[in-house]
Design goal:
Elements (H helix, E strand, L loop, with lengths): L7 E12 L6 E15 L8 E9 L4 E10 L2 E5 L8 H9 L11
Antiparallel strand pairs: 1-2, 2-3, 3-4, 4-5
């Protein structure tokens, strides 16, 4: 179970594409406002455990959850239907003290 309130939030506007299982094809959906919200799962602290970033595009009625895992204050893994963490997601994690190594940056 995730926390009921987001730990951190970011709102931006960008070109949105729906990607398909990390294949080199994407469906362009136009420019839309979106929100990123970081939640921790029950029993997780900022330094160790799991959570998720919700990527919400209200105009498209789209919401994706990107699972994240941290250990000793550093991102160790993530999943989701996206192929890479975008700079805003990295900034969101870093804003709460999570270290994101170069391995997770495009």
């Amino acid at each position: 179970m995730a926390t009921t309130e987001p730990i951190a939030t970011f709102t931006g506007k960008s070109q949105i594409c729906r990607e398909f299982a990390c294949l080199p094809m994407a469906e362009p959906l136009g420019e839309h406002e979106y929100t990123l919200e970081l939640y921790w799962f029950e029993g997780t602290t900022r330094g160790t455990g799991a959570g998720q970033i919700e990527f919400d595009v209200p105009a498209l009625d789209e919401c994706e959850a990107i699972g994240i895992w941290v250990e000793d204050g550093a991102l160790t893994d993530y999943d989701g239907t996206i192929c890479e963490l975008n700079p805003e997601m990295i900034n969101l994690l870093e804003s709460v003290g999570i270290t994101v190594s170069e391995d997770f940056r495009s």
